[in-house]
Amino acid sequence: MSTINRGAFPHRHLLGIEGLSADEITMLLDLSDGYVEQNRQKDKKRSVLRGLTVINVFFETSTRTRTSFELAGKRLGADVINISPDASAIKKGETLIDTAMTLNAMHPDVLTVRHADSGAVHLLSEKVACAVINAGDGSHEHPTQALLDALTIRRRLGRLHGLTVAICGDILHSRVARSNIHLLNTMGARVRVVAPPTLLPMHIERLGVEVFNDMREGIADCDIVMMLRLQTERMQGSFVPSTREYFHFFGLDAGKLSAARPDALIMHPGPMNRGVEIDSLVADDISRSLIHEQVEMGVAVRMACLDLLTRDALANEYESEAETRQ
Ligand code: CP
Predict the structure, then answer these.
(1) How many Å apart are CA 191 and CA 207, to the nearest integer?
(2) What value does the mean pLDDT of the chain take?
């Protein structure tokens, strides 16, 4: 049983991976490990968050993140409310800040927020009295995705340090790529990004990654091949000649995967666009694809984040077993 020290995680919010230390990331992953085991039992419920209120505010669509935050909150005993733009006053023109202040007046304990604009979740966090978790802001960060990816890798390979991870596809628009680059670098992995020049941010190498424009070269000798979808909802104009051509050069199929290590593992945060960035034969290869494991880890990681951020910051030693908080 690991010991969790809230005082060693001196953050009120989880807005990004950038700025977290290796110890803080390890603490979240260790806490998540316990929740993986809980989620595999028949009785998945605990009362760690009994009496607390979690509001999920998703200004952008989501299947995995929204559902897993809802499950996470409910499995820990919180009251969980979901808000989407289509069913709220946002549709009537209310601003982000007014929406935040309105929700704040209802005394939530945690707001999990997804927004199309980079920085919007940070702005909102300055207006409310509760903890805020970034569930993805524009092309900036998606911290719980990087944590669940790290947990998936760590449980499969036993470590993050020293691994080589190739992140392939639309790096330019990807908050998943940014959060993963920060996390993997912090944890001592080697990170490559593989994409056509049009889908790479300027000066991306300053984030401490190796840059490749050729899939076979980029994934050679990698332990992990992490594929990303084309984020067409963030594109203004054309970034690839056609999806067919994109798949030909950058889609992961068995042919290109043969350039990687024979035991290289495949990841994708979802949603996948089959036949665009990944071929079905590769995505569904249960001997190498971790895609469903990633989804499972997502619930555990979000339970750990809700648990840690709602612990009394002034208290010190807690046991990671949920029951000790009841
Ligand atoms: N990976 C991810 O964020 O998926 P959703 O958009 O379904 O939440």
Answers:
(1) 10
(2) 92
Fill in the DSSP letter of residue 106: T
Cα(304)–Cα(32) distance, rounded to whole angstroms?
5
Distance, C-alpha 25 to centroid of its chain: 13
Instruction: Give pTM, 2 decimals.
Output: 0.94
pLDDT tens readout for residues 168-177: 999 999 999 9
- 212 CA distance to ligand 1 middle (Å): 26
The residue type found at 176 is V
Provide the greatest CA pair distance for the chain: 57
- Asked whether the predicted pLDDT for residue 324 surpasses 80, the reply is no
- For a ligand 1 pocket test, name from 65, 67, 147 the mutation site with the most ligand atoms within 8 angstroms of its C-beta: 65
Query: Which residues neighbour 231 within 8 Å (Cβ) at sequence distance 6 or greater?
Result: 139, 170, 173, 174
Condensed to tens digits (0 to 9), the pLDDT of residues 174-221 reads 999 999 999 999 999 999 999 999 999 999 999 999 999 999 999 999
User: How many angstroms does the Cα of residue 68 sit away from the middle of ligand 1?
Assistant: 10
Please give the number of the atom of ligand 1 that sits closest to the Cα of 142: 3
47 pLDDT band, cuts 50/70/90, is very high
Nearest residue (by CA) to ligand 1, atom 4, is 64
Q: Is the model's pLDDT at 51 over the cut of 90?
A: yes
Cα–Cα distance, 4 to 27 (Å, whole number)? 7
- Give the E-state strand segments of 180-246 in sequence order: 190-194, 210-212, 224-227
Q: Which amino acids bring their CB within 6 angstroms of ligand 1? A: 62-65, 136, 145, 269-271
Residue type, 235: M
Q: Which atom of ligand 1 is nearest to the CA of 65?
A: 8
**233-249 pLDDT tens trace:** 777 767 777 888 999 99
